[in-house]
């Protein structure tokens, strides 16, 4: 038997659907800023991989938009900060932090969830609302957001926040950490979307409407003494009818 069950509150859905486009726009505006000094690349012998190659910049019409990127980045930074702060407050005061925050078993169970998703394990660990991998990922994203804001402030005004700048090892380290966090956010986007597709429409509907369809097991009804006697009577009657027919033959 199928029935609708509540999964996500309005607040969770609100924070989710605000954060998703805002974070995307921050990554986009950050790319406009990074164009002015795109120094990071990976070297592997003769092979060199440069993040955001010139061909990508040109195809997305990114060059010479530094001022636009900075304006958008600072604008959406405030929305990102406010939305993130309200989300953390909601988790604390609603008690839902217990469903999000990893426990001592989460890291081991997250690995088992990964093995299950890769079809290397038949059964995934049981969970209430979020599995162990989700708890680790969602908590990690919150800390990534906080670190992104801190390193962003250091990049913007390193002299204004000397203690924070020293804590992360200087301006260059802050810029590198900020860039690495951006790459991690992009990877989180990709994995999150893939997982949503794999989970199917029912899971996606829940983050839109708050409700999902679940399968309810109907318990076997116990037979009452009256029904048991009636069944025995019916069986006895059937035997009498059968005996009468045999005698006629």
Which secondary structure elements does this structure contain, and how are they paired or packed?
Layout: E1 2-6, H1 10-34, E2 41-44, E3 47-50, H2 54-59, H3 66-94, H4 97-100, H5 106-117, H6 132-156, H7 162-167, H8 171-199, H9 201-209, E4 211-215, H10 225-248
Antiparallel strand pairs: 1-4, 2-3
**Strand percentage, roughly?**
5-15%
Kindly state the mean pLDDT as a whole number?
85
- Global Rg: 29 Å
Q: Helix and strand string, N-terminal first?
A: EHEEHHHHHHHHEH
Could you name the ranges where pLDDT drops below 50 across 5 or more consecutive residues?
none
**Category from helices, strands and their pairing:** mainly alpha
Largest sheet: 2 strands, antiparallel
Contiguous helical run count: 10
Strand order of the largest sheet: 1-4
* Head-to-tail CA distance between termini: 49 Å
Tell me, briefly, the overall form. Answer: globular
Instruction: Tell me the number of strands.
Output: 4
Percent of residues in helices: 55-70%
Could you characterize what this model shows?
There is one protein chain. The relative contact order is 0.11. The chain is mainly alpha-helical. Helices cover 68% and strands 7% of the residues. Strand 2 and strand 3 form a beta hairpin.
Spell out the key features of this protein.
single chain; 249 residues; mainly alpha; two-stranded antiparallel sheet; 7% strand
